[in-house]
Amino acid sequence: MSLAFFNTLFPDTGSGRDQGYVVLAMFPEGQITPGSGPTDLHWFAWPSQKETIAAFCLANHESDIYTSAALYKTKGDRKADKIAHQWAAYADTDNLDLSKLKAEPTMVVQTRPGRHHAYWVTEADDALRLTELSRTIAHTHAADGCDKGGWDAGQLLRVPGTTNNKIRL
Question: Fewer CB atoms near the end CB (10 Å): N or C, the chain?
Fold first, then answer.
């Protein structure tokens, strides 16, 4: 796992202070259970704990690890009203031919062979506006295979370099 992913999602504002918290979410005991979500949450201050985030992902790379494109105000709650900063719109493009995207993403993450998440990083720090943009991207590309439901604020998406154990079920 490269820090490039997180550094791209969360640009340096130059303030020298932590801007919020990154959440890394896993399934309890590292085991995917059909019908349940990744509820084992781990919180890290950004950017002071960026090396710890990389170490955590590396140590758990054989597990499914998810994050959101947002930094949170406090640890423990990833509801939309707890988002402190967000600079990226995103789409779960798993079944979409990426050549059909109407705008070039800043970053594409392969979640398994032939499946991807796409991110459009902006200069705007506006979670509400970017979540709405994510919804628009999803619905605009739905007929071509984009997941219409993968746009909500705080949406969890796979961290690159971690294992997709869903394909083993």
Answer: C
pLDDT in tens, 77-112: 999 999 999 999 999 998 899 999 999 999 999 888
- Strand pairing report for 157-158 and 88-92: unpaired
Whole-angstrom CA distances from 63 to 6, 60, 90, 105, 153 are 18, 6, 22, 26, 24
Alpha helices in 22-123 (DSSP H): 50-59
Q: Is the pLDDT of residue 25 over 70?
A: yes
CA 98-104-110 angle, to 5 degrees, is 45
Task: Name which of 103, 81, 92, 87 is nearest 153 in CA terms.
Answer: 81
Q: Give the residue among 68, 60, 58 at the shortest CA–CA distance from 22.
A: 68
Sign of torsion, CA 137 142 145 147? positive
Question: Would you say the C-alpha torsion 151, 80, 103, 166 has a positive or negative sign?
Answer: negative
